[in-house]
Design a protein that fits this description.
The structure is a single chain. This protein is an alpha+beta fold. Helices cover 50% and strands 11% of the residues. Strands 1, 2, 3, 4, 5, 6, 7, 8, 9 and 10 form a 10-stranded mixed beta sheet that branches. The longest helix has 81 residues, at 30-110. It is elongated and about 180 Å long. The N and C termini lie far apart (156 Å). Pfam families: Mab-21_C.
């Protein structure tokens, strides 16, 4: 009870003390302090609001910057991905393109002879053949009999006469030469159209090659463009000939390839053997200060030797002998007192190893042929193998086969057209190469005499294709299908095919002229053939010629 009373009293006292009427002055300032506090609170609130706005702006700026950085990084990443993707596609496209190009070249090089089999394989005529009237079999047969056979009957007698005189001349040449210092001359060999029986245009010229060798103790060491070392494209088909002592091993000792020190001496080769005087090498017909055989010096020596030999035997003959062409040092002409003359080429050559491939000092040049790299570069001729191949294939063909007839007609037409419109880049050697390709590609029965017209068309179509592609491969170089009976050197079979039309890529003016001449020949073919088979009015013939010109 007392505790309860005490609590009530304490409560009453506390209420009286805290009543505001007991403290009038102290409580009178409350409203003023409240306004100041409110004002300060408003100012603080405004300050906080401004600070909040500033922070929000900074946060917004940071977020915008971050987004910009992220966007830039994304763009860079996408650019990198696109670049990588583009580089990948570019590289892939280049690889695909190179593979296609390599396949195309391999296909062409591997099948450059597989052009026959069926006549339909060559039935695709180009625009040059549109509107061309091809002579029929009867006209071609009449033309061949009257124009070709009628003018080639004396070739056998001419060959016999030239060969007999050349043998006598070379025998005299050996007698006037110094056997211990001069080159040793061997017997001559006949090559080319006169000895393959397809020459048709006059003047008839016999081509004879004369192998020669150096005097003892020297020998020739030959190097071709396909022997392993890299040769520029303009030197393909050429080689060099080094004059060495027979006991000198140029491939086995490094002293010839490495510069030895002054205090070092090769035990295999003495100083006397390795450094020969330049005068001695020039006597061996080498280029100045080198061991390489110089074609120009060889021809000068050969001309002087032939002149001396003729002076020794001229009293035996009733004709004169002279050099006929300045640009062809081996061109000779026999002049009879009656005014008639016989021309023939006598050209020195160097045998390649133990084969019938020869380095020829001077080769008949055409407008298509590029300049010889230097006088130490010798052109390789496969004329002996070409003659053997034609003879070998002829044994498998039907009697009176038309392969030679096709080549003769084509050679005549091209020569006749060139006489009307001027020379072109095509030569008789290109035409013979076309025939060699078709001989290997076509079955034997396709060359029967009654198929002369079809085979002549094949040769023209094949030639048109080669002109269009600017590709006519050498028949032997790179040809792995050469008959084994020929014993052809394997190094040339494994070599890259040699494009005889490569100069057309470099000389577009000659290419254009050659194509135009070929098209003119096709258009005038019937008229040119009919001119020698049936009578054509003179006005009509002149009209054709003017149109051609």
């Amino acid at each position: 009870m007392p505790v309860g009373i005490f609590r009530v009293c304490l409560l009453v006292i506390t209420a009286i003390v805290n009543h505001p009427l007991f403290f009038p002055k102290e409580n009178g300032t409350v409203p003023e302090n409240t306004e100041e506090i409110i004002q300060k609170m408003k100012e603080r609130e405004e300050s906080l609001r401004m600070e909040q706005l500033r922070l929000e702006q900074e946060i917004a700026d940071q977020e915008a910057t971050q987004k910009a950085l992220e966007k830039a990084a994304l763009v860079v990443e996408e650019t990198k991905e696109e670049k990588v993707r583009w580089d990948m596609w570019t590289a892939l496209s280049m690889v695909i393109f190179l593979l296609i190009e390599l396949w195309r070249q391999d296909f062409q090089e591997g099948n450059w002879q597989d052009i026959g089999g069926e006549e339909d394989d060559m039935a695709v005529l180009g625009k040059a053949f549109k509107g061309v009237a091809f002579p029929n079999k009867a006209v071609l047969a009449s033309f061949y009999e009257k124009r070709i056979l009628g003018t080639t009957g004396d070739m056998a007698r001419m060959r016999e006469m030239v060969e007999g005189f050349a043998d006598d001349l070379l025998e005299a040449l050996r007698s006037v030469c110094n056997r211990d210092a001069d080159m040793e001359v061997e017997d001559c060999m006949g090559v080319g159209s006169m000895y393959e029986n397809w020459r048709v245009r006059k003047p008839f010229v016999c081509d004879l090659i004369v192998p020669f060798a150096p005097p003892e103790p020297y020998c020739f060491r030959c190097q071709t463009w396909c022997s392993g070392d890299s040769f520029p494209p303009d030197e393909q088909g050429y080689g060099t000939i080094k004059v060495c002592r027979a006991d000198e091993d140029v491939t086995g000792c490094i002293c010839d390839k490495t510069k030895l020190g002054e205090d070092m001496l090769c035990l295999l080769h003495s100083q006397v053997n390795t450094t020969r005087p330049s005068s001695e090498m020039e006597d061996l017909l080498c280029f100045k200060n080198t061991q390489y055989l110089d074609a120009d010096q060889v021809m000068k020596w050969f001309q002087i030797a032939v002149t001396k030999a003729w002076n020794r035997i001229s009293h035996k003959y009733e004709f004169d002998l002279s050099f006929s062409l300045l640009d062809s040092p081996g061109a000779l002409k026999i002049k009879f007192r009656s005014g008639k003359s016989i021309a023939f080429n006598l050209t020195p050559v160097v045998q390649y190893e133990n084969s019938d491939v020869y380095f020829i000092s001077h080769f008949p040049r055409s407008s298509l042929a590029a300049d010889v790299p230097s006088s130490t570069h010798w052109f390789l001729t496969f004329a002996v193998y070409e003659r053997r191949f034609i003879h070998l294939v002829s044994k498998t063909l039907p009697a009176n086969a038309c392969h030679v007839s096709c080549l003769q007609i084509l050679s005549f037409l091209h020569g006749k057209q060139c006489s009307l419109t001027g020379p072109s880049g095509l030569t008789n050697y290109h035409l013979k190469t076309v025939m060699l390709h078709l001989l290997q590609a076509r079955p034997s029965q396709d060359w029967a005499p009654e198929k002369l017209e079809a085979r002549l068309q094949d040769m023209l179509k094949f030639l048109e294709k080669c002109l269009h592609e600017k590709k006519l491969y050498h028949f032997f170089i790179g040809n792995g299908k050469v008959p084994a009976e020929l014993s052809f050197p394997i190094i040339f079979q494994r070599a890259e095919p040699l494009n005889l039309f490569r100069p057309f890529v470099l000389r577009r003016d000659i290419y254009r002229k050659t194509v135009d001449t070929f098209h003119e020949m096709l258009r005038n073919m019937s008229a040119l053939i009919n001119e020698y088979t049936v009578h054509i009015p003179l006005a009509h013939t002149n009209g054709i010629r003017k149109e051609s010109l």
